[in-house]
User: Which sequence fits this backbone?
């Protein structure tokens, strides 16, 4: 991010909106060690939102935005759905265009940014619901993976069309009775993580967003692998508490129940050999950085 | 602006960035005998494009593939084949959101498949250029020339121009970027031609020097932020008007749409300057005018010759831009005409409807002849329709009865 393109005169800074001042002084753009632990002590890149009270998607948004390795050079791509109510509040550039075309938008975007900034890294991250990713947009989801486009696809899997009022989706469980599935869904939940692996994704994780440290780890891994190697896919369970008949405070428990061993969101990952090599390398560098920081801290003391 | 300071510098392919006006008006031209598809390639070679995304569909496949050759030669930043026209137009949008100058081509059913993207392009103010080599969209399957698809583009918020010849096509691809990227316009352009008639026939075209190109696109002249995180992000809305049912939301959407259409209107002055007017008029004092766009204009010119042999005086009005719609120009050009003949390569006669809605005394308009599904339009049928209108007996034409 160029902080030079628009610059507020120092004399004017204190009359800028507090929101602006906060983002300049307390956000974590450019901080290499940023992560979910900054939540509560720094300015977050998402704060207010218009999701339902207690919606797990709002937790997911906060963890993901806190975990982006380089938000100052990240552009996000959304789709139509509950996420499109949140993106206007997000403090990184983001695009909404149509329903289901998010991976096509991201393909063009990533290539344009690569042409325009050949010597710099610009991360592209797609974040869309399961209707957008698996139903209406499946073609473009898969084709982006076949082409080995270098961006991360995140699917907020709430197992239905939440924003339109709880209709059947491809990621819905078999037998679930919903709008447009009046006698229960007749076919199995689409196995997109396996399809992702077969389609050329180098890092695939299926999990819930109950644990912020886990979300941070998988987000960082996915973005680093996408940056260096090729497509990555995260399928995150963000239950629609409204449509599955839960109360506002029950979202977290729903995720914990669904991630138990043998449940459909027990942690599963696939890492290609190339990605394993990269992640090992990055882990070693991180260890080195921590050791050096510790040493420096000890020296200061 | 920033682009002008780049005149005289070299681009990625080693071409010299030229002053656009000089490039298109005073630079030496080389006459070349090319197909329409090759002409598209030669224009794009000089357009300093960042991204081109391709998909095969007749009759634009050859042009789309030839631009791939330009990529291989280093004239374009990136190029790939998308998976469908819907996806391609979204990929074009992504590239344009990211600040690239984008080019693509499509035709017929491809245009229809991609349709959802076009109002989105206009609403997002993306100055993408899309060549439309018109063909049939009907079932049973047809790949032949037919301009029905243009009518679907007219209300998308895109600029829509209709080229008659390969020379128009060449010049307008370059001029199209200049007009559509103006900050007070910044809209996508559908540059249409009649498939096969223009794409697959050879014509003599005067080309500008191959070692000179347009200035690069400057995304920071856009009226909306470029999505590259080079400008500080803002939280765009405290109360997003996405899917809200309240007055502010309605008003925001209404004013946004009005602004898109106002931008089309603002493109008028640029298009007049660069295209030398939105219409071209020949013999405006004639009682009978043939008013048309695309290759129907060429057929009208031939009909004019035939009728002149019979002593009937004919004028020609060539409409270059359909959006912006040259309403004033058409009213003025047809002021004295007693009969206005509108030949079209489609079954519905959408151009005649537009003209009827524009001029006083619309009964003067004769909608037709209409040919479609790949039928050619011999000038004889235009001449016969005009004679019929005038009550002059003419020989019956094969296949048309009397």
Assistant:
């Amino acid at each position: 991010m160029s902080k030079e393109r628009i610059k507020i005169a120092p004399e004017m800074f204190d009359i800028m909106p507090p929101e602006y001042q906060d983002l300049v002084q307390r956000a974590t753009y450019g901080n290499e060690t940023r992560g979910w632990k900054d939540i509560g002590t720094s300015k977050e890149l998402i704060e207010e939102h218009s999701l339902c009270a207690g919606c797990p998607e709002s937790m997911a948004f906060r963890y993901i935005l806190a975990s982006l390795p380089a938000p100052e050079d990240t552009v996000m791509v959304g789709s139509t759905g509950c996420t499109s109510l949140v993106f206007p509040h997000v403090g990184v550039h983001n695009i909404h265009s149509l329903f289901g075309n998010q991976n096509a938008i991201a393909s063009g975007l990533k290539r344009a940014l690569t042409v325009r900034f050949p010597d710099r890294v610009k991360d592209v991250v797609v974040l869309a619901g399961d209707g957008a990713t698996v139903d209406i947009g499946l073609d473009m989801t898969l084709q982006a993976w076949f082409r080995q486009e270098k961006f991360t696809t995140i699917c907020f899997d709430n197992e239905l069309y939440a924003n339109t009022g709880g209709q059947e989706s491809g990621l819905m469980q078999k037998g679930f009775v919903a709008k447009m599935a009046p006698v229960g869904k007749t076919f199995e939940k689409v196995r997109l993580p396996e399809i992702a692996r077969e389609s050329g994704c180098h890092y695939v994780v299926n999990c819930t967003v109950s644990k912020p440290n886990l979300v941070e780890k998988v987000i960082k891994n996915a973005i680093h692998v996408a940056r260096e190697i090729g497509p990555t896919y995260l399928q995150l369970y963000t239950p629609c508490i409204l449509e599955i008949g839960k109360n506002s405070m029950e979202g977290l428990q729903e995720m914990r129940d669904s991630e138990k061993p043998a449940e459909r969101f027990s942690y599963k990952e696939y890492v290609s050999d190339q990605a394993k090599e990269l992640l090992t390398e990055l882990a070693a560098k991180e260890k080195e950085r921590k050791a050096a920081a510790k040493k420096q801290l000890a020296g200061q003391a | 602006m920033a682009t002008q300071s780049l005149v005289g510098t070299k681009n990625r392919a080693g071409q010299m960035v030229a002053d656009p006006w000089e490039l298109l008006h005073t630079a030496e031209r080389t006459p070349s005998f090319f197909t329409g598809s090759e002409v598209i390639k030669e224009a794009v070679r000089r357009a300093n494009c960042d991204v081109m995304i391709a998909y095969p569909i007749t009759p634009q496949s050859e042009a789309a593939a030839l631009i791939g050759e330009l990529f291989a030669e280093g004239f374009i930043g990136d190029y790939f084949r998308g998976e469908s026209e819907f996806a391609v137009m979204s990929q074009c949008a992504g590239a344009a959101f990211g600040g690239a100058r984008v080019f693509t081509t499509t035709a017929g059913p491809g245009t229809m498949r991609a349709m959802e993207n076009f109002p989105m392009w206009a609403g997002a103010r993306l100055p993408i250029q899309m060549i439309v080599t018109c063909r049939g969209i009907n079932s049973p399957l047809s790949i032949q020339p037919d301009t029905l698809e243009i009518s679907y583009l007219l209300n998308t918020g895109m600029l829509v121009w209709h080229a008659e010849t390969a020379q128009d096509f060449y010049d307008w691809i370059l001029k199209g970027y200049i007009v559509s990227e103006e900050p007070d316009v910044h809209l996508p352009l559908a540059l249409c031609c009649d498939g096969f008639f223009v794409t697959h026939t050879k014509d003599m075209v005067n080309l500008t020097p191959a070692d000179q190109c347009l200035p690069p696109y400057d995304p920071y002249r856009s009226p909306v932020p470029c999505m590259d995180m080079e400008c500080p992000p803002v939280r765009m809305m405290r109360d997003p008007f996405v899917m809200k049912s309240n007055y502010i939301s309605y008003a925001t959407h209404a004013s946004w749409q009005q602004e898109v259409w106002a931008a089309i209107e603002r493109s008028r002055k640029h298009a007049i300057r660069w295209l030398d007017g939105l219409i071209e008029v020949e013999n405006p004092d004639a009682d009978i005018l043939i008013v048309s766009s695309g290759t129907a204009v060429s057929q009208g010119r031939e009909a004019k010759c035939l009728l002149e042999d019979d002593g009937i005086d004919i004028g020609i009005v060539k409409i270059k831009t359909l959006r912006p719609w040259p309403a004033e120009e058409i009213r003025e050009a047809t002021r004295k005409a007693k009969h206005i003949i509108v030949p079209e390569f489609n079954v519905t006669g959408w151009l005649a409807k537009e003209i009827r809605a524009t001029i006083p005394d619309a009964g003067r308009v004769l909608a037709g002849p209409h040919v479609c599904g790949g039928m050619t339009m011999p000038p004889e049928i235009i001449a016969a329709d005009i004679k019929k209108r005038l009550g002059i007996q003419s020989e019956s034409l094969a296949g048309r009865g009397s």
About this structure: The radius of gyration of chain A is 20 Å. The first helix of chain A runs from residue 18 to 26. Chain A has a mean pLDDT of 94. The first strand of chain A starts at residue 74 and ends at 77.
